[in-house]
Amino acid sequence: MKLAIVGLGKMGSQIAIRLQESGHKVIGCDVGEASRQRAEASGIHTAAERETAVKWFGDERPVVWIMIPAGAVAGELQAWLDVLPADSVIIDGGNSDFRDTKKHAELAGSHNVQFVDVGTSGGIMGITEGFSMMVGGDEPTVTSLDPILDSLSQPHGAHHYFGPHGAGHYVKMVHNAIEYGMMESLAEGYHILHDGPYAGLDLAAIAEVWRHGSIINSELNNLAAAAFRDNPELSGVDGYVAESGEARWTLEVAKEHDMELPAIQSALDVRLASQSGKISFATKLLAELRNKFGGHAINKT
């Protein structure tokens, strides 16, 4: 298939490379010249202007995959709707609020453009391991995108259609909220190992043991093991932990439905407190884990 990837950051560039290596025809779109140059060095044809990308599709149905921060999606969507022909497809593969996604789908529909939400997980390991994708939208349109989703899921990923517009981002939102809680639990555990009654415990060795046959083993613990091998004391990490919105949105939905999510609430509270200076070995590990799986920047001491 032919498709345009909008946003050539860490995830977008890897999706573009993976699809091109799988035999799809890809054009990368990014306003940043440096991002385009990096993509071109990987063999991805790029364009700075949306109109150029639309012409590149020729007589084929344009498919545009947007991979940018949630706050920028609305403006980017409108800009593409101004240049795309009817019956085009726009995919939002980022971490958008599902409530915004439903509005975006209505806007696209008013322009006779199909809108699909694909909550995408896998981080910067997805290019080799495959991505996990949670999909919402019009089912026939989603089915037409199976060649793309199949390619991105190989060899160990997966994709599934969950329902109408917003369903994919809703499932991904809850996924990320769970991620907050799991990360917090691991961080607290390693914190008490580091600062508890037995001084000098080898955290890398503990993590390595847990990687083999332990009930709590996970990709996050694998990343913790790598973090401690690389930097046993997490030296130079200041412990500031960003929050990208998904846990907050999940808690808002829970409140609307009179549900309590204490683990997710606590995990969010820890991140917010870190941003006001309440840091610890645990928040240092949280920041390090975010860097390991997502390439998120670390504040250095």
Q: Write down the Rg.
A: 20 Å
Chain-averaged pLDDT:
96
Order of helices and strands: EHEHEHEHEHEHEHHEHHHHHH
End-to-end Cα distance: 46 Å
| Counted beta strands | 8
Overall helicity:
40-55%
Which outline best applies? globular
Strand-pairing-aware structural class: alpha/beta
Beta-strand residue fraction: 5-15%
Summarize the biggest pleated sheet. Answer: 8 strands, mixed
Give the spatial strand order of the biggest sheet: 3-2-1-4-5-6-7-8
Number of H/I helices: 14
Give the uncertain stretches in residue-range form.
none
Per-chain topology:
Blueprint (H helix, E strand, L loop, with lengths): L1 E5 L3 H12 L3 E5 L3 H9 L3 E3 L2 H7 L6 E4 L6 H9 L7 E4 L5 H13 L3 E8 L4 H4 L2 E6 L1 H6 L1 H8 L4 E6 L3 H29 L7 H8 L8 H12 L15 H11 L5 H13 L6 H14 L7
Helix pairs in contact: 4-5, 9-12, 9-13, 9-14, 10-11, 11-14
What does this protein look like?
The chain is of the alpha/beta class and 301 residues long. It is built from 14 helices and 8 strands. The protein has helices at residues 10-21, 33-41, 50-56, 73-81, 98-110, 126-129, 139-144, 146-153, 167-195, 203-210, 219-230, 246-256, 262-274, 281-294, and strands spanning 2-6, 25-29, 45-47, 63-66, 89-92, 114-121, 132-137, 158-163. Strands 3-2-1-4-5-6-7-8 form an 8-stranded mixed beta sheet, with helices on both faces. β2, α2 and β3 form a beta-alpha-beta unit. The longest helix has 29 residues, at 167-195. The radius of gyration is 20 Å and the shape is globular. The model has no long low-confidence stretch (mean pLDDT 96).
